[in-house]
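Database export, one record per block. Field names are fixed; values are copied verbatim from the stored entry.
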Amino acid sequence: DFLFFWGAVFLVTTTLVAFLKKENEELIPAKEETKGITDTYRLLFSIIKMPAVLTFCLLILTSKVGFSAADAVTGLKLVEEGVPKEHLALLAVPMVPLQIILPLVISKYTAGPQPLNTFYKAMPYRLLLGLEFAFLVWWAPKVKHEGGFPVYYYAVVVLSYALHQITLYSMYVAIMAFNAKVSDPLIGGTYMTLLNTVSNLGGNWPSTVALWLVDPLTVKDCAGAQGHTCATAAAAEV
């Protein structure tokens, strides 16, 4: 119902924009960056061949490997340890004002000549928070009781998520500011889209790999079944 409602809102509003919104014909249209799809990909290829861009792309494709497991698996492991999914969803509510305020605050520090300094400074703290998330998962069964989890556990989770958001947005805003700063104004849209796409890919592929590695790297013990290691899915099922 939720998806159906917002899908309908999306269709109605975009249809209204298509039919009711008119272009201002008095303005002289700006010269397009490229003439077509072929020119666009040829331009992208010429950009990515530049040594500085190629090196930067390799860096941002691998810079988030250290955070992938903490970002992708923590919530799933907390649910596995018994934390209700609806409680985790509610914990995201206090993060919304923080997510609105953080870019405004961080942009003051990324507006200078070296926006990536903020990216570098936030990285070690985000790595340390990965250990904090591992501690939260380990701690969950220790404090769980019949009524669920104590309030102080949720308070620690919210605080940890808030600190994580600060480091996450510091890196995100910094990389966006850097991409905007180095993009050639003549082909700004194409240039920025390329860098931002590579940046997003650099965050997505490590998370996918981390999720794939969860089962192979998880150590399991079989209780009451001698001779079984539960190392594989088949053995665990037996």
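Remark 1: The radius of gyration is 23 Å.
Remark 2: Residues 49-211 form one domain.
End of record.
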